[in-house]
Amino acid sequence: MLNWPGQPYPLGATFNGSGTNFALFSEVAERVELCLFDDDGSETRVEVTQTTAHVWHTYLPDVQPGQRYGYRVHGPYDPANGHRCNPAKLLLDPYAKAIDGEVSADPSLYSYTPAQPGVVDDAAHLNTDDSAGATMKSVVVNPFFDWGHDRPPGHEYHELVIYEAHVRGLTMTHPLVPEHLRGTYAALGHPAIVSYLKDLGVTAVELMPVHQFVNDTHLQDRGLSNYWGYNTIGFLAPHGAYAAGGTRGQQVQEFKAMVKTLHEADIEVILDVVYNHTAEGNHLGPTLSFRGLDNRAYYRLVDDDLAHYFDTTGTGNSLLMRSPHVLQLIMDSLRYWVTEMHVDGFRFDLAATLARQFHEVDRLSAFFDIVQQDPVISQVKLIAEPWDLGSGGYQVGGFPPLWTEWNGRYRDTVRDFWRGEPATVPELASRLTGSSDLYEGGGRTPSASINFVTAHDGFTLRDLVVYEKKRNEANGEDNRDGESHNRSWNCGVEGPTDDPQINALRARQQRNMLATLLLSQGVPMIAHGDEIGRTQGGNNNGYCQDNPTTWMDWDLDDDSRELLAFTQHLIRLRHDHPVLRRSKFFTGAPTQEGGLRDVAWFDTSGDEMNAEDWDADYARTLMVFLNGEAITEPDVYGERIVDDSFLVLFNGHHEDVEFTVPARTYGERWSMIACTDPEVPVDDADGILTAGEKISVTARSVLVLGRPPLEPGTPPVTEVR
């Protein structure tokens, strides 16, 4: 086969229209073979002889898109010194842009052959069985795609309503999606799904992992699979099983078409990415790619025991974040997904691990420095899951200014308030107003807080009000897996019931938490299906359930339709009113002389809350005034923003509570805009309240009142103190 020297950059396989350049980093390699595979599985090996700064490279003028390939690296197998090269193992290209096939449970994938229990890393027991027939293959892809006039929607953070979704879970049972497309990128871009998302009102989808991942063999042995996908092996490759059109590069084209369609609907695409570990596991794991290429360059090893991996992720390994080659791989991957695949941002799984150059989490680590100065990545959405499993890993509020964070304290506070925990009112007030206690000190804004009540990990919103105990038996781990402290409340009966009062309360509690979420400053994130009451039957760890347990049930009953309509109404309300999604924190002060403060808090008598009110452990009520005429930040044209003002009444008591509308200083007439009790009239003549009027607010409910701004020329009313 014709074989030219090629170039060391870019890394990976790059088709230029006539042939393909191959470039692979390995400092430890002594020889590298490029292996090409025909459709019948026959293998052709090409010796790669050119090296530049530890990059092995060659150019094959006859290789076209669709060609499957892999590498064999000859070098030391010396686990005690951190080296695990084994040319019998076919290795994936870390920069592969498409991957074909699956990993089997074949013993040939492992570089050791235990002669007896406990003997696994001894070089004398090296496994020399060829793994090519049991592993995935990298694929050369065609980079050309007609993007037309595609452009990123470019929503500001405070304009986002994020919808966390799973490619399969969202689309597998939709009746309008053709059966052969369900569970694929094509399904997510299907008009039925896009129309649903548009009608719901979300402005971004946050896709659970779509990087190529490995289906764990121990799950397959139990008849299960890795549904969530937090087990990446290909950081530039879209997961092949989510493609309807094939896995010889078609997955790349299909993913791009999906993004283009969502962009046309003004919906951004954010990827949940896993750069903290790989699918190769610990020292007992398979040799699939990085381990056999250059183990010490990619993985963090135990300092005084290089045969074992340092693990802050709970998966068996952690990538070496102080390695320039790991940092280059991550940044090249991120740039590729933005520039070539047109995604709009990333949510970083266990992001605290990315900040561990050594042992401690360091917000000044090299990774954050590189992101800060990168002209591409610094301009997209950056969302951190701000914790990992290592010491000091809980870092909510600790990320640099460019970053936003999943606010775990928001989730816990909202759940605690609505299940009746004491002393939650002050904390709830902080979470409602953007968590300034966590983010303002770092020069950040309310948008740094990604607010959520539920996510893929844990109970669904419906299960949060139906179960207090997890039901994970189907996972095959004797119900030991998953979180046991869920901050949930079953409303009086564990599991489903026919009791109409309990079911009404459960429906109201779901609306309460959705209303709280969508009325809070910051960025709301809804887990897919929560808007229709999706249940997992109490399973709070659906990572291995690729079946109706985790899929959306599109056969909606009346309760589901009512919850969906309520969610749509609240999202529209948020979209229409800037005061509900401010880009700066409240100050608690007037913005003009004689004006009202931008936010004010009241007790049930309509009087402003004092220190004693805030300190009352027994308090379960809160009334907040949001001043739409005190928004200091201008619009995109530099014009002053004037909005309606709102009173939001929260009753967390188990009984109805009488509230008094505050004095006319804050508004003469108020309209009922929304209520989590469906029996309360809103948007009609019976839903008008006047200053000083008393109103009974249903037990465990939220009531939203609104008034228009003062007419132009009307003098402001001096605030009563």
Automatic annotation (TrEMBL):
The keyword NAD does not apply. Pfam families: Alpha-amylase, CBM_48. Gene3D superfamilies: Glycosidases, Golgi alpha-mannosidase II, Immunoglobulins. GO terms for molecular function: amylo-alpha-1,6-glucosidase activity. The keyword Hydrolase applies. GO terms for biological process: glycogen catabolic process. SMART domains: Aamy (SM00642). Residues 472-500 are annotated as: Disordered. Keywords: Glycosidase, Hydrolase. Residues 138-574 form the Glycosyl hydrolase family 13 catalytic domain. Belongs to the glycosyl hydrolase 13 family. This is Glycogen debranching protein GlgX. The gene is glgX.
